[in-house]
UniProtKB/TrEMBL annotation:
Protein name stated in the entry: Aminopeptidase P family protein
Domain Peptidase M24: 152-354
Cross-referenced Gene3D superfamilies: Creatinase/methionine aminopeptidase superfamily (3.90.230.10), Creatinase/prolidase N-terminal domain (3.40.350.10)
CDD domains: APP-like
UniProt-recorded Gene Ontology molecular function terms: aminopeptidase activity
Annotated ranges, domain Creatinase N-terminal: 8-144
Top-rank taxon: Bacteria
Keywords: Aminopeptidase, Hydrolase, Protease
Length: 374
């Protein structure tokens, strides 16, 4: 794995050199992990002048010793770890100081992640070193996933499917949304996750179908729609799954009609995923089915997004999205409809974009999308 991280850093270093930067400072946590395999809280990565063997080397600057916690990861062997002696010292500012001492003339920084205060501090610690904007260079590298990354996402999806499947076999009536969410997160860890990929959403009755609903003390009742959104974090990689069920009885006609509508929209979005397809086109075909049925006003700003080291990363599947899909890019397709006072439906899958010759989009989250009565 160390070789993989070295290759990633070399690609970034070449890009920096092409723009005249002799060193780079990475502060966004997901980008630090992508380039080193490790992301302690607050850590910063310095790609020093001359590469790993140069005067500064590649240094992970931390404000405390590494704990070995799986959620932090393990640093690549060729990355030097420096622990600051004072915990109130900013690793980002300290890393800039190291770059200046190593002779860097131009330091590329992630301006989109730096606060104004931090940016000023960098200028003060190294007044003779020019700061250049790295922009979203690392995020661009992260967009297309390699085999190891997709393997981690597959495992995260398997864990999520297992946790959800076990919950569906238990008694649900009378339990609160909050209790069910906590149980799901415990089951994720039991099956090998480092933790939840995001705050687990459980919504019942009139709450169902709301995007990102935070669980409350409302209890599950007979006849409710139950929408669940969860995902596992496995070795830093995060997936997402969302399903809707009916509790304890045969679904009502309006529930079947609404479910079939959202299912048709989600299916259209999944089938539209292919290399070369415009990102906004996937959103359009998904959204069009729901808008035609009169639910356009309540739709969210997007119908899907990329996943990886972050649960919400590029590409965005939205009306204003720019760019086209590439092969080996994992995305979600997650349309939903919420009817105020009644509830709603959300269906969410994580898939990997694949060409038709390879079988089309690879579905990672395989829990049934049949409308089950639990």
């Amino acid at each position: 794995m160390s070789e993989l991280y070295a290759v990633r850093r070399a690609q970034l270093r070449d890009r920096c050199a092409a723009t005249g930067s002799t060193a780079a400072l990475i502060s966004r946590p997901a980008n630090v992990r992508y380039l080193t395999g490790c992301t302690p809280p607050g850590a910063a990565l310095l790609l020093g002048p001359g590469g790993p063997g140069g005067p500064g080397g590649d240094v992970l600057v931390c404000c405390r010793p590494l704990t070995g916690d799986p959620t932090e990861g393990r640093p690549a062997d060729d990355v030097r770890v420096t622990v600051l002696p004072a915990r109130d010292t900013d690793p980002v500012v300290a890393a800039a100081g190291l770059a200046a001492k190593a002779g860097a003339e131009v330091l590329a920084v992630e301006e989109h992640h730096l606060t104004v205060t931090r940016h000023r501090a960098l200028s003060q610690v190294a007044p003779r070193m020019r700061l250049a904007d790295l922009a979203c260079a690392v995020e661009a590298q992260r967009l297309v996933k390699d085999d190891d990354e997709i393997a981690c996402l597959r495992i995260a999806a398997e864990i999520s499917d297992q946790a959800l499947g076990e919950l569906l076999e238990s008694i649900l009536v009378g339990r609160t949304e909050r209790h069910l969410a906590l149980e799901l997160e415990r089951r994720l860890v039991d099956h090998g996750a480092d933790g939840p990929a995001f705050a687990t959403s459980v919504a019942t009755g009139p709450n169902s179908g709301r995007a990102g609903h935070l669980p409350t003390d409302r209890r599950v009742e007979e006849g409710d729609f139950l929408t669940v959104g969860l995902g596992a974090n496995y070795r830093g990689y995060r997936c997402e799954i969302g399903r809707t069920f009916v509790i304890g009885t045969t679904p009502a006609d309006w529930q079947i009609e609404l479910y079939d509508l959202v299912f048709a929209a989600q299916k259209a979005g999944r089938e539209a995923l292919a290399p070369g397809v415009e990102c906004h086109e996937v959103d359009r075909v998904t959204r069009h089915i729901l808008e035609t049925a009169g639910h356009g006003d309540g739709l969210g700003p997007w119908t899907g997004h990329g996943v990886g080291l972050e649960i919400d990363e590029d590409p965005q599947l939205s009306p204003g999205a720019m760019g086209k899909l590439d092969a080996c890019v994992p995305v979600t397709v997650e349309p939903g409809v919420h009817i105020p006072g009644r509830g709603g439906v959300r269906i969410d899958d994580t898939l990997v974009v694949r060409p038709e010759a390879d079988g089309g989009p690879e579905l990672l989250t395989i829990t049934t999308k049949e409308l089950l009565a639990l």
